[in-house]
Each structure stands twice: as C-alpha cells, then as structure tokens.
Model the fold of this input.
Amino acid sequence: MAGLLQGEIVAWRWASASVIGTSHIQNDGRLQDAYAVAAFENGGIFAVVSDGAGSAKFGAYGAWLTCRFLSVRFREWVRINPDMPPNEILADWIAELRDRISAIATRRESTPRQFAATLAAIVVTPNEAVTLHIGDSAVVGRKNTEWEVLCWPENGEYASTTYFVTDDPEPRLNITRHPRKHDAFALFSDGVGDLGLSHLEQSAHARFFDPMLRPVDVASGEGRLVELSAKLATYLAGSSVCERTDDDKTLILISGG
Done:
C-alpha cells in the first residue's frame, strides 16, 4: 500500500489483543501487560502498550495506569488543540504520571518501584506522528510497503532488565517526531519482540507484519475490529507463539489504508 500524504485524514481501524504468558500461568500469576487505543475526530489516533515489571508487586496496575493516564491526556489535548503537544508538555505528562504513581504507592504503604512499567505510545495526526518510549516495548510503522522501527526496545545494564516509567531519578524517556508518511503501525510488548524484530539487524520482519496486517487492511468498518481481535488473541495464545516466548504478549495492529 502507498504511504499517506501529509494532511490526509483517514478512517482508522485496528485489531488488538493482550494474552497472559505461559510462565505467569504456571506461577499462578496475572497478565502484566496493558494497552489502549483511541481514534480522534480530527483524523488522528493514539495507541499505547505498557508492560508491568514481573518483579513489581503492582506492575499490572502500573501498566494499566500508564495507559489510562496518557489516553485521557491526549483526548483532552486534541479536543481543544489543533496541533500536537510540544515535547515539553509530553515530558510534563510523564512527570505528572510519576507523581500520581508515587501518591498511590504512599497510600498503599509501598514504593513507586512496585508499580514499574514500560511505555511505548504513538499519537498520529494528519500532519505528524509522535512516539513516546521507555523500556523494551516497541513501535513499527509501514511506509511505501516497507516496515520501519520507530521505537527500538531498550534493555538495561544487566541481562533481562529494562527501563521503567518509575525509574529514579528520571525515566529514560525518548520522544521522537516523524513525518506523516506511514499508513499502518504496530505496537507490541517485548513478548512479541522476538517474533517481529531482527535484533541482529535492528529491523522489523516484513514476513511477520505483512500477513498480520493484511486482514486489517482489507477489513470494512472503522475502529476496533472485534472478530479480528479475537482471532489475534487466539494466535498469540497458540502453541506456535508460546513455544517461542513464555512472556505476556500484547499486539496492536493499526491500518489507515
């Protein structure tokens, strides 16, 4: 599919699913991932994936709160502003989110670290796409049939570690602005990263994303595609995926074609 032109308003549709990893099932754990997607009347769309740290007591809640908080902030912004928020505003929102987590942690006689969660988000308007990223989730976009990694997963200093919204003294927040040339996007937690990314070449696997997006591209209607989302959940929970990763798996597939 051809890339979109700047200023072009499209009708977005998406399939999305989040399933618990087999390792969490075996340990009587719970799903630590969360996500949210929202289409705006101005032709824009917002999507976010957050992965709660398995070692954090309230990691699942931290992930949910991260997605909920940013969804509300972006909805409020686009309702009264024609342009994308500047980087300073976005950074302020993350600081506000951290303050909220800290207050909740205090009420629960806990610490912000027990709410640790990653962040991978994108907001798209007819003229621009902006990504916000902390940790090892990722965002990819399709431009002129080619897939580009817009947010590459970042790991910490030690094996099997990463960065979180709650890190002290400041989170490792990356904000990147992209020209409006992509017609599809995928956001996913690290449980899907081994399936969709080449870590050797630091690139996205077209052989993974092309067939995954094709049903979304050709689907009729707008908004969340309920039937395709159910099929996506079945796929992510299937043996062919779980044999490759025992982690939670969240995947959002967005098409504007």
In short: The helical segments are 22-26, 59-80, 87-107, 190-196, 206-218, 226-236, 239-242. The chain has a mean pLDDT of 90. The domain at 13-255 is CATH 3.60.40.10 (Phosphatase 2c; domain 1).
